[in-house]
Amino acid sequence: MKPLIGITGNFGDKGCELAKGYYQSVLEAGGSPVVIPPYTDISAMSALLDRLDGILLSGGSDMNPLLVGEEPIPQLHGINPERDVPELNLIRQAYDRQIPMLGICRGIQMLAAALGGSIYQDLGVQYKDAPLIKHSQDLVREQASHTVFLDKDSLLGGLFRSSSLAESEKGELKLPVNSFHHQAVRCPGKLFKVSARSSDGVIEAVESSGHKSILGVQWHPECFILAGDKSQMPIFQWLVNESCNYAQAKKVHGRILSLDSHCDTPMKFGTDEERLVTLPRMRDGHLDASIMVAYLPQGERTGEAHLAATAKANRIITQIEETVSSHCTEVGLAYTPDDLYRLKDEGKKAIMLGIENGYAIGHDIAQIEHFRKRGVVYMTLCHNGDNDICDSARKSSNEHGGVSQFGADVIREMNRLGMMVDLSHASERSFYDAMDISQVPIVCSHSSCRSLCDHPRNLTDGQMKSLAGKGGVMQVTFYEGFLRQDSKASVLDAIEHINHAVNIMGIEHVGIGTDFDGDGGVPGLAHAGELINLTRALLRERYSEADLRLLWGENFLRVMREAQGFKA
């Protein structure tokens, strides 16, 4: 199947129109082009975006500067009000959905304007110095008029690296282009980085700084292609390839169940803080289900403090239940794997309940049955700091030398009641003790690989092998401090940890636990709306749909089924 590429139509005397070069270039690159007319119906735009696999933002007239809070200057040329608002909305919606985008001429400027950057209304009067070259040419459009310098380490530089282009003294690639504009990107904003400039320093290309499939160029590559010069074809081939990848990821998510085994979103209930897991973001990222936990920081271990911790866990669970109930047409609570699949078939998202820190039960083992009856599917035995159950990986005094006698009883009771044992945050000694005690496979709901990032919260290769050997699962997390020691992690590091875990444990014992809203999130996987980027990256790594089905939830649900069906 060829990817469906939407091209923004211009608006002229006869209404919506499109220059041949745009759709011809998409066709030659292997895509199926369709025209996106300029309209302001948000719901209709959303329905269209459900079907598109990529977007090409075409060239055209100036944008109304009032839309970005600027007054027009005398040198502003003709604006096209029919296009401006629809295209700004289109770009923002497509950005949220991770749809690949290519902006050409006006298109690159609209990308910047829509996503936090700014543009020059006229280079001749607003550029820091009078431009050294003429940017608005009178040549035929298929002839080069000046040279741009590509950062060879950029996405754009990579597209042309094999084209035998000459290098500048700074090691940049020199690319001859055409130019028909008096406006340009002034500031790309935080979401973009500059990948090409002309000799006078004017920005000629930008690309995503956050591992998204977005590229903008100031020149008109489609004019070269229409005239038979294929030198600019890598730009359109990139758009089609990225759109193919996006289309494949969407289809995979339509056929599998995707579960995030750990998020801390309830911590932000009742606050004005941005939530990384919301219904719109779950839809954008094609995430079907999330386990939201009642998180309890480790506190004092007095009788009074334990009662307060138990009460707090109950309040948080009630908040989750009430929040789900208030959106019952879109989301439902799930207590079993079958519930998850039923809700997906109904077109709803699903929420499961977890507890992070056995501090919630204090020293009262009867609370396990209470929380299990409330629907809690797993409990993380500890957090940062020892509790009555076991020693922690952090802030620990090694009080018990692993799992306490009470902790052993807790694990056995969790087995009996069908509640999964979660060992994320547990010390290494606690880990091995729990492995020996539990009669049911164990999970680590949000942990990564210590051999790649030496942090006590991560699992050693030995722990990972032991976990897999007893049928458990490790859910790779996206907390940057657990992915890279220099804390400059991205989606690429998450992939590296998944690859390593699969190599050590086998594909049947690895999954995904984001820790969103609990400090999880890295560029490319910053919130639930970006989770389809993980699937796209895994597809590039040659993971099959069967592999993705296991990673995205089936491995974790296998353990859940075994735990819930356990008979002592």
3D structure, described in words:
- The protein folds into two domains: 4-249, Rossmann fold (3-Layer(aba) Sandwich); 256-564, Metal-dependent hydrolases (TIM Barrel), CATH 3.20.20.140.
- 37% of the residues lie in helices and 17% in strands.
- It is elongated, with a radius of gyration of 27 Å.
- It contains 19 helices and 22 strands.
- With 568 residues, the protein is of the alpha/beta class.
Per CATH, the architecture of the largest domain is Alpha-Beta Barrel
Helix content: 25-40%
Rounded average pLDDT: 96
Q: What's the CATH topology name of the largest domain?
A: TIM Barrel
Overall form: elongated
| Spatial ordering of strands, largest sheet | 4-1-5-6-13-12-11-8-9
Strand content: 15-25%
Radius of gyration: 27 Å
Oligomer: single chain
User: What count of domains describes the coordinates?
Assistant: 2
Secondary-structure-based class equals alpha/beta
* Low-pLDDT segments: none
How many helices? The count is 19
Q: What summary fits the major beta sheet? A: 9 strands, mixed
**Total beta strand runs:** 22
CA-CA gap between termini: 51 Å
CATH superfamily (homologous) name of the largest domain: Metal-dependent hydrolases
The level-1 CATH class of the largest domain: Alpha Beta
